[in-house]
Amino acid sequence: MGVKAAIAYVAATSLTVMMTISAAALPWHSTRFHTAGFITLFQMKTSLLFVQVPYMTASLRAVFGKRVTEGLKEGILLETAKERWCNPSVSVTVPFACDAFSTAFVVGIVVCIIIFFNFALLAVANYVLYCYFSGEKRKPEYRRTAAGLHLVATFILFIGLMLYVFEATVRLDSFGGGGIKLFAEATLAPGTEWGAKIAWLALAFQMLAGCLFFWIKAGDELTEDDIFTSQLQTTAQKAEMEKMALRVAASQRVRTPEPSYGAVGVWVQPTALPQSQLHPSPFLAPQQAKLSSPPALQPPLQQPPPAALQPPPPVPEFRPGTPNNPAW
């Protein structure tokens, strides 16, 4: 049910956006002056930013002048029309034209900005709903955020339409005052055109789309208890990973070797230590300093030369009268 309601919401908001954009390009107000109730003398249609006069009699063109009526049949910006109709010579004939065009131009810009923000907020709301249904965990914050964005968009669109009705429409209805009795009377009915009607219809569709949030809810949506348990598990996992990282770092730490004697009392000099660390410390006791320092180098023992290199024994001399003389 939740997925079907979300699909219906996307379709309704898409239709709303297209309707509001189309309404911005259509006329929102029309004013007509007539004679005897059926002969049209002057007809003006006003959109959010433009004004167009499809029909104007030649006599009125002559009264207003070419400078004022130039380009009105094709349509001109409300700002340009304001500059032309705020002329004192024109204000004598049409007293409220300057105020009507000025207010309609400002309110039209505001409504255009509101329509843009309405589109942006609805787009973000649809994206948040997509994240809500496409994620592994259905977080209620996503659904509530989408509902809040939709509520804000609907509210500002309503404010914009009400602003146009009470500011622009009222002044455009009194465009020419009461007119001239029996000669050029203004239409008394509010001159609401299709642009305003479609905009109000889009607002109604948008309100109905907001009601779909009562059914937009996944069956496996996380509750508050599930979220609290998930946060506890995430915190515990992070703490365990930090402990494991510290253990690995401690096991891989390289310890500095210390000098010591071998098993047979031979001095073992570590190759990783610099020569400056092999000298005994002045803070050690004499016995410890003697043990911690290497023995002094002794000169090698002198070995006798080989027999081949020794000189021959001396030959005894034979002297008369000695035991060596056989004649003795």
CATH class of the domain at 2-213 equals: Mainly Alpha
Rg (CA only): 53 Å
- Amino-to-carboxy terminus distance: 149 Å
Biggest sheet, in brief? 6 strands, antiparallel
| Mean pLDDT across residues | 78
Could you characterize what this model shows?
This protein is of the alpha+beta class. The chain has a domain at 2-213: Butyryl-CoA Dehydrogenase, subunit A, domain 3. It is built from ten helices and eight strands. The strands form two sheets. The chain has a six-stranded antiparallel sheet with strand order 4-3-2-1-6-5. Strands 7-8 form a two-stranded antiparallel ribbon. A hairpin with a 3-residue loop joins strand 1 and strand 2 (39-46). Helix 1 (2-24) packs antiparallel against helix 6 and helix 4 runs antiparallel to helix 6. The longest helix has 38 residues, at 97-134. It is elongated and about 175 Å long. Mean pLDDT is 78; it is low at 261-266 and 288-292.
